[in-house]
Please model this.
Amino acid sequence: MAVTLDDDARQYLARFEDVTDVSGQDCLVDEGDGEKRLIVVVESGRMGDAIGPGGRTVRRFEEEIGSSVRLVEDADDSETFVANTLAPAAVYNVTISENDDTVAYVEVANEDRGVAIGTDGRTIDVARRLADRHFDIDDVQLL
Model:
């Protein structure tokens, strides 16, 4: 599924690629709590390159844009992609149900539910937005 990017997202991705030498697949600006955070979907298999040794590469990008950045690794299948959007939470299983709506049901370790939900629900909200943009998944629910 093709993702449509606005001008700001295209500019952020271009800068991301310049700094990290890694292709960005998507970019969301999340402004919860009045704090801007950028979510970048990174080319599959290139997460380590985007982070860099000791996190230096992604930190350099954060300094250049003046906000925090969260990286999500892209995937070819919806189940893996949804699990990646909730990282670093331990995801045991993702089941996609296609009835009236397409819903991803995610089994998460009890001790990682808070991580999967995130502060004020920001992580699960981003997971829902990205799952919709990339795989037409209407909702993501934790089990």
User: Anything to note?
Assistant: Helices lie at 7-20, 47-51, 56-65, 78-85, 113-117, 122-135. The beta strands are 24-30, 37-42, 68-73, 91-98, 102-108, 139-142. Residues 13 and 98 are 32 Å apart (CA to CA).
